């Protein structure tokens, strides 16, 4: 099977994820979309790894999964903290970075 | 000898640092005793150095010793070196000796002041600066000492720093002294770059004849500006009467031992330069003469006890400047020494009287202290006789030696000679006017109270100059006052000075009977045109002494007639010569003159500059332009920081996409 198919799927998943991050306002959904983008990248890494026939890409994919796990931990922690402080759970309402 | 030479300078510095660091550990009068001990140690070192100098051959009495090389680059060799020679040791002996007695006096006089330790730390620093000035072996260290003296005088004049008048007087003294510092630095520049190319005194003096005439004259006149500012000569004298705002021992220190004598020392030290630049020396002599007359006439009309003595100092320094400028070096320095004795004595006695009046300094309010304060009265009379030049007191011998040597120069110096005698008469009148008004007449309530055994105590403490109310905390004078009759240390200091003021003149008597000062200073002035050749005949000397004595006695007699025998004469004279009285009373309008010619134009220039250059160019263009650029730039950057998370994400994605696109195009 040509590598192109893998990459097309990866690109599509990545675009869905990016679109979700840009359009959705619920932080939970934004986090889900981020995971989609990371997994799209993992898919591309694995595809290249298979194409070259060595394991480097797979090692890289495992590292990405670890990072994604950490990110989810922190992201979910933030969301829970927002619930507890009764802040609006809406990324557009969180404008404290405004210069 | 070099070690003791350095210790002379070192002890006061050490004392100042010790008192400054341990100020809250030194309770009671300990700070005063430490300060006095430091100066006493310095005095002992000066005596040891004096004897070891005496033990050397005539040609070997100029010793330069260097601690370390401060900087040696681009042809400037600046060493931290002192010159030990008869002149510097003479000055060191006078400075440390008189300062030691003034410290001893202050131990009791300042006892109730809340800033006691601070006072002695400053006082020791002042003496250190003056010693650095007189012992310096090169121009660089001279300038350092010169500036330190100015700073120390500022600290001490505004010692009572919560008194507005005192802080203003301190600022005035400092500013005028900085004018002098500039003169000294520029003068050194002229002498260094236009000829000598060495900072060392002895090296410079060897090359004095190589420096072109105009440059040397300019350099010497600039040095004179420095000397005039420190020695309070016209027109840079206005700080001196105002300096009376400081505590009385400070006035004694400034007037007798340190500071004002620096100008006289400078001219005497630079004699090889001034003898090559006779025009500059003439300027010095004329300014000295003008100062002595201006100050003597002003003193006639002042009513502040300390200011009268201050003007008498200006006048006496005028004699010294005149003396050293015409080549009467030994006579000028001899007068410096005797003046230090009797002027310190007069200030100490005045301090005692002011203490008895609980801080009041106005002569109009004083009177009849003769019986209440016998010791102070005796000291004041001895000081007054010496200042008025009555034989055999010290001032008589030294002043008349200067005047007869001026006469010996001949030519236009006869004008100076005549003026000096007029000044001598006026000196006797104003000195004894002060004594008659303070000690004769009906006793004032304070004097009566003191006769009854109780020292007058002010209910409300006020500033004697303005009448403002004051408390007695730090920054203002302390609550209690101390008079010589009740304090041993004040009595010892004044007694010692009274003895010196009486017999100090016998170190050098006319007709070559005794010439200790002359002989001791000779090695410094070896090769001088005037030192040995100015030798008036016995008849001329005798005539001069006769005139001096007669004028002095006549002055006292006139003062006695006006202020004791016929009270009210003063008012009649005042009414008759209204214009002259106004002139003298207003100090020849020098303050107003300087205000109009220097202060106001400068202030106006400053305001003009602020309105045009500062507001428009600096604030408008430079500062406004810079902030404008920053403001516009930051507004653009700030627009990106919207705080919308999704906008950031979009930006990131766009940028990444852009980067990816770029690399793809590059790769293909």
Task: Please describe what this structure looks like.
The complex is a heterodimer of chains A (99) and B (668). With 99 residues, chain A is an all-alpha fold. Chain A is 77% helix and 0% strand. In chain A, helix 1 packs antiparallel against helix 2 and helix 2 packs antiparallel against helix 3. Chain B is mainly α. Chain B contains 26 helices and 6 strands. Chain B has helices at 2-21, 30-54, 86-109, 116-135, 139-157, 164-196, 201-206, 213-230, 239-242, 248-257, 261-269, 271-276, 278-301, 305-326, 329-356, 374-388, 394-409, 413-439, 445-451, 488-503, 516-521, 538-565, 569-576, 578-585, 590-640, 645-667; strands at residues 63-73, 76-84, 461-462, 469-470, 508-509, 514-515. In chain B, a hairpin with a 6-residue loop joins strand 3 and strand 4 (469-470). Chain B is globular, with a radius of gyration of 30 Å. The N and C termini of chain B lie far apart (91 Å). The model of chain B has no long low-confidence stretch (mean pLDDT 87). Chains A and B meet through helix 1 of A and helix 25 and helix 26 of B.
